[in-house]
Amino acid sequence: MSAERLRILRDPAVAIAEAVGALTDTFQAREALLRVFLLLGTRHEAVRAEGSRVSIEGNRNFAEALRHTPVAHPDPEAALDFAFP
């Protein structure tokens, strides 16, 4: 997923589906590693804090990449937050 590619997509459903699909593919490709970090995060505060920070940053990047996409929901920011995988 690239912000440049998402900017050229005019159909909001296609842009959001592509962004969510790219993130889902990334999560699935690294499923075993993510499982380790999730489990470690339940036992180690530093791992949990870093995972939380990275998740928040990812959500922010996701929303920024789709900022140009017209969203019909009355609260577009909340809608993009909800769509973040």
What does this entry look like structurally?
By secondary structure, the chain is mainly alpha-helical. It is built from 5 helices and no strands. The longest helix has 21 residues, at 45-65. It is elongated and about 45 Å long. 11% of the residues are buried.
What fraction of the residues are assigned to beta strands by DSSP?
Answer: under 5%
- The helical percent reads over 70%
Record field, number of beta strands: 0
The stretches of 5 or more residues where confidence is low (pLDDT under 50) are none
Mind describing the biggest β-sheet? none
Structural class: mainly alpha
Radius of gyration: 15 Å
Q: What is the molecular shape? A: elongated
Number of helices: 5
- What is the succession of H and E elements? HHHHH
